[in-house]
């Protein structure tokens, strides 16, 4: 098993799938949404869920317990705040590569009318096109709303620095995944070079375990931690990363750009605010507006905020009709593909 892994690749993804299901069952058995299950645990129980192997040079059990104990102050007020207002979100749905200018304008207009103030756009195909699209988006959303850019691992290190520097006039808060997700020192080099421009580095959606996050934090290689509910080893390993990020005072802004990821990660970021970070400074959770119709408990967005789920579980149950349509190899969608 360790030869196939360890704690990476298919082994890690399978671990996340199985353990996510176990957490879902646990929350259902308690009759609580997962975030509430976590919030109601005492600090010692949270610490008992974490594997500290390989990370004690950065975070010990005692340090983790101290962080959680300190956050007990004001915990109920923060929970009440989330239930009333929700957790701040940003949208990635307005500016995918390949959208026409008219699509970009219309989607930004619609998003602004719906209360969105934080926008992420994709970059990395062509520099002049990136400049043109960044200018268009910035003009649409105005100077006071937040813009982030995402290259999806497109560039080498020097190229990333050069390209993002050319986009600095549009004042992006961060550049996401500027290079290989495994290149810790490359991210550190990019981070150092872009700091004078006021642009942070965000990464983590392809970060395969807590050790990678440990190194990124140790190297000051990122200014925004992007956990993923299905990439790391489920809730347990994400708890370790949330606590390490807090120790390094790096805000967590989760990745949620795929099928069911919004449904899952909302639980973790709610726990982070209520029980770990106690801060919303420079913090937001990604939202994309597609594929929620396949879930029995889809996310609820109000005024660009995630409203805490109320149904028991991890919000990961799919509708029977969706499962049957996409089940391999007898599902309707697969049969169409194989014709």
TrEMBL record:
Its EC number is 4.2.1.68. Its cofactor is Mg(2+). One of its GO terms (biological process) is amino acid catabolic process. The keyword Phosphoprotein does not apply. Keywords: Lyase, Magnesium, Metal-binding. It holds the Pfam family MR_MLE_C. It comes from the Eukaryota. InterPro entries: Enolase_C-like, Mandel_Rmase/mucon_lact_enz_CS, Mandelate_racemase_C, RHMD-like. Residues 101-197 form the Mandelate racemase/muconate lactonizing enzyme C-terminal domain. It catalyses: L-fuconate = 2-dehydro-3-deoxy-L-fuconate + H2O. The keyword Metal-binding applies. GO terms for molecular function: L-fuconate dehydratase activity; magnesium ion binding. Belongs to the mandelate racemase/muconate lactonizing enzyme family. ENOSF1 subfamily. This is Mitochondrial enolase superfamily member 1.
